[in-house]
């Protein structure tokens, strides 16, 4: 979990760069990248938008169901443990353990270390028994902000339709897609909403990936600080709340999503 603060800082830097470019040109289509603290901003090339890699070890998220198995001490086995909205699970003897945002092997190591106080050379296997649905987030100046189930083929416009936005009061032409591409790489894909919604640029209806955040700012960034502050509040405050790898301080977003998909 030590990397979560770096994610928050990376996101804030991307948002700052996007805000400043919006403030300077009133919109436009740009790509803002933060890789290990190196921030770059340039013209958006649609055929080379960075994507999160497919595959790799699964990251545990809220709503997943876990089996915690002790091959040599089966009396300690725990089946179908839900990952709570606070990102934790509860297991005998050791109590609450943070699980969301970790891979099964990383959680395995944590639980093994905790049980070393009670068992001699404990062996632990963590198995994801049931996977929660993947999700995208639509935040900012939309009527129904929150998380929505991800489906293949989702685009910027379909996500905005789910969030019923942008709101009429939003004076911004720009919409920002925030994507975590790697452990230390966050990008902001800035799209001129007027161009894509007005039918001038159908190619700007960018395909989304699971975990993407679509953010609609309050204004055309005459209020740059508003743009930075709102997203910073949503993503950067350390609250031990993780949605598939994103650190989020607004617990209402989580509860709204799980209520919508029927888990609460």
Classify the fold: give the CATH topology of the largest domain: Outer membrane lipoprotein wza fold like
As laid out across the biggest beta sheet, the strand order is 2-1-11-10-12-8-9
Low-pLDDT runs: 1-7, 21-26, 220-232, 234-264
Helix content: 25-40%
Query: Measured on Cα atoms, how large is the radius of gyration?
Result: 20 Å
How would the global form be characterised?
elongated
CATH class of the largest domain: Alpha Beta
Number of domains: 2
The total count of strands amounts to: 14
Number of helices: 6
Give the ordered list of helices and strands. HEEEEEEHEEEHEEHEHEEH
Percentage of residues in DSSP E strands: 25-35%
Q: What distance lies between the first and last C-alpha atoms, to the nearest angstrom?
A: 27 Å
The residue-averaged pLDDT reads 74
Second CATH tier, the architecture of the largest domain:
Roll
CATH H level, superfamily name of the largest domain: Outer membrane lipoprotein wza domain like
Structural class per helix/strand content? alpha+beta
What does this structure look like?
By secondary structure, this protein is of the alpha+beta class. The chain has 2 domains: 4-55 and 133-260, Outer membrane lipoprotein wza fold like (Roll), CATH 3.10.560; 65-130, wza like fold, CATH 3.30.1950.10. Helices cover 26% and strands 27% of the residues. It is built from 6 helices and 14 strands. The chain has helices at residues 4-25, 104-115, 156-162, 193-197, 224-235, 251-260; strands at residues 30-35, 38-43, 65-69, 78-82, 88-91, 95-98, 125-130, 135-140, 146-149, 174-182, 185-192, 213-216, 242-243, 246-247. It has a 7-stranded mixed beta sheet, with helices on both faces. Strands 4-3-7 form a 3-stranded antiparallel beta sheet, with helices on one face. A hairpin with a 2-residue loop joins strand 10 and strand 11. Helix 1 (4-25) runs antiparallel to helix 5 (224-235). The longest helix is centred in the N-terminal third of the chain and has 22 residues, at 4-25. The protein is elongated and about 65 Å long. The model is unreliable at 1-7, 21-26, 220-232 and 234-264 (pLDDT under 50).
């Amino acid at each position: 979990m030590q990397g979560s603060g770096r994610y928050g800082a990376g996101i804030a830097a991307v948002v700052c760069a996007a805000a400043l470019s919006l403030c300077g040109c009133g919109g436009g289509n740009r790509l803002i990248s933060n890789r290990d603290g190196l921030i770059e901003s340039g013209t958006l090339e649609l055929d080379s938008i960075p994507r999160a890699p497919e595959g790799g070890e699964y990251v545990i998220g809220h709503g997943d169901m876990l089996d915690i198995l002790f091959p040599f001490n089966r009396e300690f086995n725990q089946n179908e443990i839900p990952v709570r909205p606070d990102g934790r699970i509860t297991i005998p003897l050791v109590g609450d353990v943070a699980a969301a945002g970790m891979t099964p092997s990383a959680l395995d190591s944590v639980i093994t270390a905790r049980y070393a106080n009670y068992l001699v050379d404990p062996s632990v296997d963590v198995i994801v028994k049931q996977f929660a649905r993947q999700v995208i987030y639509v935040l900012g100046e939309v009527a129904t902000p929150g998380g929505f189930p991800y489906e293949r083929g989702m685009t910027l416009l379909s996500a905005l339709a789910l969030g019923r936005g942008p709101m009429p009061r939003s004076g911004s032409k720009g919409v920002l897609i925030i994507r975590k591409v790697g452990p230390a790489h966050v990008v902001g894909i800035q799209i001129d909403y007027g161009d894509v919604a007005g039918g001038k640029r159908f190619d700007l209806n960018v395909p989304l990936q699971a975990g993407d955040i679509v953010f609609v700012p309050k204004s055309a960034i005459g209020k740059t600080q508003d743009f930075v502050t709102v997203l910073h509040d949503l993503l950067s405050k350390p609250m031990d709340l993780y949605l598939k790898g994103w650190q989020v301080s607004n617990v209402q977003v989580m509860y709204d999503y799980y209520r919508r998909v029927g888990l609460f």
